[in-house]
Amino acid sequence: MREPRVADSAALRPVAAGDSVAPGETAAAGDRTRHEELWDQLLQFVEDGLVIPVVGQELLSVEIGGQKSFLYEYLARRLAERLSIAAPEAGERAPLNHVAFTFLERGGEPERIYSELQRVMKDVGPLTPPESLRKLASIKPFSLYVSTTLDSMLAQALNGERFGGDSSTDVTVYSPAHPDDLPEDVENADRTRVYQLLGRISAMQDYVVTEEDALEFLHNLLFSARPKRLFNHLQKRQLLILGCSFPTWIVRFLIRASRESRLLLARGKMDLVVDSGTRQDLSLVSFLQAYKTRTEILDSGSAIEFVDELHRRWQERVPPQPAPPRDGADRPAYAKEGVVFISYASEDRTVAKGILEALEAAGLDAWLDQHDLRPGDDFERRIRHTIEKCGLFLAVLSKSCLKKNRRFLQLEWNSAIAEAEKARPSQHFIIPVVIDDVPTDHPDIPDKFRATHMATLQNGRLSDETIRSITSDYREFQKRRGGV
Fold this sequence. Notes:
By secondary structure, this protein is an alpha/beta fold. The protein has 16 helices and 16 strands. It has helices spanning 27-47, 71-83, 95-105, 110-124, 131-137, 153-162, 211-223, 228-235, 248-257, 282-290, 303-317, 349-361, 379-389, 407-422, 447-450, 464-481; strands at 12-14, 51-55, 61-64, 67-70, 144-147, 170-173, 193-196, 238-242, 271-274, 295-298, 340-343, 366-368, 392-397, 430-434, 455-458, 461-462.
């Protein structure tokens, strides 16, 4: 078998197809023809809703402190400082794994890696999603994205591009302890979803930092906690693996897991890998070629450059539509099942959004209803339905809540109290959070709220202890819902 070559031009090359050229063509002309054929094929798959982007850290070029950096290289440097070890060299494919491995090799305690990384992530603060994610988010036929990063920026980019900033993207976070699957209506292309396959940075420490973590996650995916709807959906679609920086054994796993039968027998799928390390691993390229996996590899260029090209070609094919209105008229009115519902007075929206961001950073799905009600809206049905389906009800309490004519807020409270009555005595459903000097013994604050431990903000933010407590209640609800 001829050794696969890596071309000089930034073209898509079919690993399984060899390097032959049609009669009468020069090699360069043959490359250009195949290049355009593959782009046409990919764009048609996208238009038909048959592509699932698998998004990795090579797309996350962000600005931190006025300087551009790849997020996970930055996190690795800061983590190395906290652990008092040497930082990885620039361009390290898995910088967090490198730092963790070095720390463990020197006898460090594993738990410290995760607690320090969470602190580093908090210190970074809110980040603007990079242009590459925003461009991916703007391609509307993508309805499901699989994220292999540990942050929330992909969902943020989708919310910004598609929902005017509202948190309307459904996010599912996998962990071995809580193997959440996609919802039953996974085929509904009108919903926008992110599945975080390797977890998300949180206080629970159930996310992938090291290669050993990845091994544990994939072991559970195979043998004990397989999200069946996710993998059934992957088997019906083409994967677009973008800058995931995976070890090659994980690339092999993903390609096999997304096929119904073994690689030698699988047909009808075309997966595309755009990754700086994959194209340099000739043993992987030979493997993909020998077993005729129909896996296409980008010969050169970065994942960011590929997304730029994909976005440009998509806009030429389907001109962009006007941005959705910001008044909420066309946004989803209901939260998905199991979220943390945040109830607040409109004057407290800024504080409520800060609480939302803190919960999302902890790996929880939270819902902040920002839809302005208009005359004729069936808002009572909408509120009751949403609260009936939520996992926890977080009530933001302030002096603004005590103002008159608070029918909307009162309805949320009454609905939550009714749901709490159905819960087990040991179940925490209502979580009051006091954000100012509101008198908690005021008669307008329900007895059910006063009988519950009330959390408060510290320096305008939820404390780590409060987030851990909410996370524990949230996980308990997810565990009961899944029948685990």
